[in-house]
Amino acid sequence: WVYRGVEDAGARVESVADHSWRMAAAAFLLTGATVEHSDDGKPLPPDDVGSTAGGQGVLERRVYDVSKVVKLAVLHDMAEAITGDIAPADNVSKEEKHRLEEAAMAKLVEEMAGFTQGGAQEVRGLFDEYEARSSPE
């Protein structure tokens, strides 16, 4: 936002906290929702639901674990509490950004373990899953 001059235009700049809260609220709104996908796994636009979407193949209906989606939304940028929001304009390589965020998450999880070992393990597991993109959520 700041790099694009939004702040100078008098508009309110979205903070990391604003972004994370909105992501969690959007995830919460998925409660009870299903999303139809083509056989290649890509979500279909609402107009194509129930069709073969121009020959994309057999459709499937997925029901997502909304609790997990909300948890992922809450923690997906948790490392930014330490690193700040590293944007492309910062000229930080993907590898360095990943290293910084990994170190920040390790520190947060270590501190969290002092209060709740189970919670720390869940956060670490969910963050790793998010980073690896290993679940449909």
The main sheet orders its strands as 1-2
Uncertain ranges: 48-55
Binned, the helix content reads: 40-55%
SSE arrangement, N to C: HEEHHHH
Quaternary class? single chain
Radius of gyration: 18 Å
Number of strands: 2
Described by the principal axes of the CA atoms, the overall outline is globular
Largest sheet: 2 strands, antiparallel
Distance between the termini: 27 Å
Average pLDDT, to the nearest integer?
78
> Total number of helical segments?
5
Structural class: mainly alpha
β-sheet strand percentage: 5-15%
Notable traits:
137 residues, two-stranded antiparallel ribbon, 5 helices, 2 strands, 46% helix, globular
Brief summary:
By secondary structure, the chain is mainly alpha-helical.
Give a verbal description of the structure.
The chain is mainly alpha-helical. Helix content is 46%, strand content 6%. It contains 5 helices and 2 strands, in the order αββαααα. A two-stranded antiparallel sheet has the order 1-2. α1 packs antiparallel against α2 and α2 packs across α5. The longest helix is centred in the last third of the chain and has 20 residues. 7% of the residues are buried. About 6% of the residues have low confidence.
Spell out the blueprint of helices and strands.
Layout (H helix, E strand, L loop, with lengths): L15 H13 L5 E4 L22 E4 L2 H10 L4 H4 L10 H20 L3 H16 L5
Antiparallel strand pairs: 1-2
